């Protein structure tokens, strides 16, 4: 229930979802760049020395032929950004779910610790009374009585700290749920059951499902496509322009033109753009590799820690 409430109300997750909408809008815009543009215009021209006013109404359209794939690569880059923001949102949601679960189990443990501490104080009350009775019977000295009282107060003094820790944990969990600090309804630690078998699947498949790995992969894909875009700037671009209009008193005018633009010298902009794109692509690749290695370490550590915890549970049970 708390996890569902957190997914619905956590502000950070809502921000991540809004970033997905932004990326979707940019992706749709990049796809529209492959289509021609269409515009309308209207003019009124007055000539000096003449009372006649000439009116012009027209439509104009322009379309750039994607010969070298520059616009297509830009669209693919936008799509990679969209997938990247979706992976970021899944990472935020994964961390949110884990944090809610951690805080919940921490609250259960603190509740149990508080109950044990309160029972310990009650036990020490009985011990103090016993020691006082033994002193009256001349079996122990006054020092033994005072020492038992000190042990009793040493246990009691931890209760305020435990209550403060519980309050702070409840407040932290409330913030994750997207609501003001308040109490958290919860069960008891004794009612929880430990999962005895953890199905992780094939390690490579487990890593490929991690949002941070997917994010790094799509980031590399984004810069890969931008390198293609930068390379396409070296080739000529073909633009077709058409216009038609109605000129007062009723003359129809239409024209169509095609233009071919080839960069010759533009202060090294194209070469710099390509060199920077290649460097960014290489950095994205190295970041992807580093993320993959770090994710593998985290998965290995987590699986080992889980197995260690299972082993400790049986030993602790024997100790109890």
Please describe what this structure looks like.
The two termini are 33 Å apart. 66% of the residues lie in helices and 14% in strands. Helix 2 (11-32) runs antiparallel to helix 3 (70-136) and helix 3 (70-136) runs antiparallel to helix 5 (158-176). The protein is elongated, with a radius of gyration of 36 Å. The model has no long low-confidence stretch (mean pLDDT 89). The chain has a four-stranded antiparallel beta sheet with strand order 1-2-3-4, with no helix packed on it. It has 320 residues and is of the alpha+beta class.
Order of strands across the biggest sheet?
Answer: 1-2-3-4
Helical content (DSSP H or I, runs of 4+): 55-70%
Instruction: Identify low-pLDDT runs.
Output: none
- What is the residue-mean pLDDT, rounded to a whole number? 89
Structural class: alpha+beta
Spatial shape:
elongated
Order of helices and strands: HHEEHHHHHEEH
What Rg is obtained from the alpha carbons, in whole angstroms? 36 Å
**How many angstroms separate the termini?**
33 Å
Strand content: 5-15%
The main pleated sheet reads as: 4 strands, antiparallel
Topology, number of strands: 4
Count of helical stretches: 8
List the helices and strands and how they pair.
Elements: H1 2-9, H2 11-32, E1 37-46, E2 53-65, H3 70-136, H4 142-156, H5 158-176, H6 203-208, H7 211-232, E3 237-247, E4 251-261, H8 269-319
Antiparallel strand pairs: 1-2, 2-3, 3-4
Short description:
With 320 residues, this protein is α+β, with helices and mostly antiparallel strands. It has helices at residues 2-9, 11-32, 70-136, 142-156, 158-176, 203-208, 211-232, 269-319, and strands spanning 37-46, 53-65, 237-247, 251-261.
């Amino acid at each position: 229930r708390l996890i569902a409430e957190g997914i619905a109300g956590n502000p950070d997750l809502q921000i991540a979802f809004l970033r997905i909408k932004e990326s979707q809008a940019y992706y749709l815009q990049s796809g529209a760049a492959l289509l021609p543009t269409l515009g309308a215009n209207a003019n009124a021209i007055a000539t000096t020395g003449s009372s006649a006013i000439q009116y012009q109404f027209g439509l104009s359209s322009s379309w750039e032929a994607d010969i070298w794939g520059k616009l297509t690569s830009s669209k693919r880059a936008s799509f990679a950004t969209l997938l990247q923001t979706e992976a970021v949102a899944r990472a935020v949601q994964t961390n949110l779910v884990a944090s809610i679960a951690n805080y919940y189990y921490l609250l259960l443990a603190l509740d149990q610790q508080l109950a044990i501490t309160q029972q310990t104080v009650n036990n020490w009350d009985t011990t103090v009374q016993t020691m006082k009775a033994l002193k009256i019977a001349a079996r122990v000295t006054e020092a033994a009585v005072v020492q038992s009282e000190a042990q009793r107060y040493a246990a009691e003094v931890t209760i305020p700290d435990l209550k403060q820790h519980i309050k702070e944990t409840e407040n932290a969990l409330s913030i994750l749920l997207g609501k003001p600090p308040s109490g958290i309804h919860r069960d008891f630690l004794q009612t929880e059951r430990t999962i005895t078998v953890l199905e992780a699947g094939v390690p490579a498949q487990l890593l490929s499902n991690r949002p941070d790995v997917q994010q790094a992969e799509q980031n590399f894909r984004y810069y890969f496509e931008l390198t293609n875009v930068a390379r396409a700037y070296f080739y000529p671009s073909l633009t077709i322009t058409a216009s038609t209009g109605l000129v007062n008193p009723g003359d129809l005018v239409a024209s169509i033109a095609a233009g071919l633009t080839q960069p010759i010298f533009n202060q090294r902009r194209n070469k710099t753009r390509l060199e920077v794109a290649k460097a960014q692509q290489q950095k994205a690749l190295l970041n992807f590799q580093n993320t993959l290695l770090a994710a593998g370490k985290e998965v290995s550590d987590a699986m080992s820690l889980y197995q260690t915890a299972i082993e400790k549970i049986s030993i602790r049970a024997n100790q109890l």
